[in-house]
Amino acid sequence: MTRTIDYGNLMHRAMRGLIQEVLQGVADNGLPGAHHFFVTFDTRHPGVKLAEWLSERYPEEMTIVIQHWFENLAVDDDGFAVTLNFGDTPEPMYIPFDAIRTFVDPSVEFGLRFETHESSEDDEDEEEPQPEEERHDAEVVRLDSWRK
What we know:
alpha+beta; five-stranded antiparallel beta sheet; three-stranded antiparallel beta sheet; 8 strands; 37% strand; globular
């Protein structure tokens, strides 16, 4: 049996820890300066908790902005809860760290993108997919990739 170091999953966990630490700092002390966050997440992830109308409107993915109006930011080991304003209606939500696809702070041109590969796209036999361990990759991205 050959053992290898799984750098992809190690990086994935480290980047999730970074997000956890940043959000905990904001929960404790508020947003410093011009910092704000765009967080895109998989709304289908089993731990995501959203209002039903938001799940229907965003059946696959949603991007939230944590900037001017947010309340009740609470961070735990698995994710974070926050209440955001949607058309003058406060909506609480819970987002597990494993549901996050991107985390961007445009005020300092910082961004992370997480990609999940559940199966190989090159599988020739698509009728019987081979069981495969889910793989996560994380990478630091430049903010320029988000500008149009």
